[in-house]
Design goal:
Distance between the termini: 51 Å
Strand content: 15-25%
Structural class: alpha+beta
Largest sheet: 9 strands, mixed
Length: 298
């Protein structure tokens, strides 16, 4: 028996057909937007519909109307209690706790992330866990792109990083999404106005791929899936136990996707709050420089 557990606050009414099918999820499209239907235990999200008892192998048709999801002819009514709210709620008063929690997040990403993830951007020694040849060269390339994004030629970095890596959402795209989410959080905390930067990054990141483009649109707007929202909430509360548990939950997403989003998010917060991020407020700057000739950094 099917039971609707949650529906994202940005899921629009409409009739959808199957776009892509995976072991635990099905993407439906109306031609330009994607709605993802997942089984119980999966993340709520701004464009997600989570249904207990859902069988991804059999799903064929989806219709969304006011107050109801119709999945393969089965009507699943919902009210406001089932609507997942995907916005980030922070303000300037949360800055001190978020700053403290960010350091813990970085340490956890180094300690717990998959060996093939972008955590080598935080710990140079991890680069050597990548296979010699293609993987390691790709890692070096991505490291230079990230330095461009953070410190020098941001648009060049985004254009060279997007699409890099393997998987449904390549590591480069995951990093860019984390970067956009980090800019949203910096803005909410009062560390600069990044709205114009976010728009420029979005335009440079778009590729015409429906799946990744929607991923970027949501990140630019600061709309987050449940695991990321719980992590941000934990950072704002300053609870070490909650930061650990929500980081664990984020890292469980995909083989490396959660870690790669987390690395992009963490580096953006770290460099932005320290005043090192290109385009940030000068009043936040500290005495620290980067040598552009270096490869990666710890």
């Amino acid at each position: 028996m099917l039971e609707l557990l949650s529906i994202g606050d940005l899921v629009p009414d409409g009739t959808y057909r199957v776009h892509s099918r995976f072991r635990r999820a099905v993407n439906f499209t109306d031609g330009w937007r994607l709605v993802t239907v997942l089984g119980g235990g999966m993340d709520a999200g701004p464009m997600n519909v989570v249904v207990k008892g859902f069988d991804p192998a059999r799903a064929q048709a989806l219709q969304i109307e006011r107050g109801a999801v119709i999945l393969d002819g089965v009507r699943l009514p919902f009210d406001d209690r089932r609507v997942y709210l995907s916005g980030i709620r922070l303000d300037h008063r949360d800055r001190r706790r978020v700053l403290g929690g960010t350091a813990q997040l970085g340490a956890l990403l180094v300690q717990l992330s998959h060996e093939k993830s972008l955590a080598f951007l935080l710990d140079y020694e991890r680069l050597w866990s990548l296979d010699e040849g293609f993987e390691r060269n790709l890692g070096r390339h991505m490291g230079h792109c990230v330095k461009d994004i953070l410190y020098w030629n941001r648009i060049r970095g985004i254009e060279r990083l997007k699409g890099c890596g393997i998987g449904l959402t390549p590591a480069g795209d995951d990093f860019i999404a984390g970067f956009l989410l980090g800019l949203n959080v910096l803005g909410l905390l009062g560390v600069g106005d990044w709205s114009e930067t976010r728009r420029g990054v979005l335009q440079a990141a778009l590729s015409g791929n429906t799946l990744t483009d929607m991923f970027f649109y949501l990140a630019e707007e600061g709309r987050v899936f449940e695991s990321m929202k719980l992590l941000i909430t934990a950072l704002a509360k300053g609870s070490a136990a909650d930061i650990r548990s929500t980081t664990d939950r984020l890292l469980a997403i995909g083989a490396t996707s959660g870690a790669d989003i987390g690395v992009g998010f963490y580096l953006t917060l770290r460099e932005g709050t320290a005043g090192r991020l290109k385009g940030g407020p000068r009043t936040a700057r500290v005495g620290w420089t980067v040598n552009e000739g270096e490869g990666l950094w710890s």
